[in-house]
User: Fold this.
Amino acid sequence: MMNDVLLEVVDLKKHFREKNGVLKAVDGISFHIKRGETLGLVGESGSGKTTTGRLILRLIEPTAGRIVFEGQDLSNLKKHEMRLVRRNIQMIFQDPYASLNPRMTVREIIAEPLIIHKVASGKELEERVNNLLDIVGLHKNHAKRLPQEFSGGQRQRIGIARALALEPKLIVCDEPISALDVSIQAQIINLLQDLQEQFNLTYLFIAHDLSVVKHIADRVAVMYLGKIVEMGDKEQIFNEPRHPYTKALLASVPIPDPSQKGKAAVLKGDSPSPINPPPGCRFASLCEKAKDICFKEEPDLVEVKSNHFVGCHPDSIAND
Assistant:
């Protein structure tokens, strides 16, 4: 593994046993993230994006696979060992209100990781909390208030300050702006980009909004029903999509210019259930280019161009 790779995920799986069978939320995905870059992980609801983020932090335990951070395999670490690693891997959650304890003040929320990891105490602790508030655009007087006294955008800034407290190297951003007003979303994205440059942060940015991912990501991985179906540089994914699902996702993005007519994405057929999915490609029942092999054999993720990978049988890859 190259020295500039911070995180490597290898054949990661998370299966949940249900009454009707096995829910394969994440089913054998592999990717890496280099230091200082942003990998956008996109897909519709139920594709396995959030589960992937939680697996990386081992907030839930993987069924199989490896999670390698700075050369260390996190998959089998004990709880106290994983706690030390979490100083370097933090998460920003989707709902900025649900992720903050309503009974704790802002000061207590931001100070908590510093106290747990014995990083600071006394006057130094207060200074660090005030500095973190300033970094995310809040005032030190906000430290005495409770989360419900803030707007959604301000709450997310508190969550970002908490994630920054231990000076992590990797932050998993789980749809960090999807619960915010549109007018606030750009502010939070700009803040995340400024913080990345200032602290040399690495992001796994999970989202379903492709326009946001296009703005912030360096590379993009597209998920569908627990699988990565396409992955590559941002320009490759947005300008030269090869997988039919990626093309459908991009075609569904609204065009802000009313003078331009977008090509609507119409998918015919039914999506398979993630519980006991059928053999072959999971997108085959929705794909107009599907061949017999697509319903029988699961395609591998293959490199079709430099650093551009597609999980599609060669005869079905969308070249148009």
Notes: The first helix runs from residue 49 to 56.
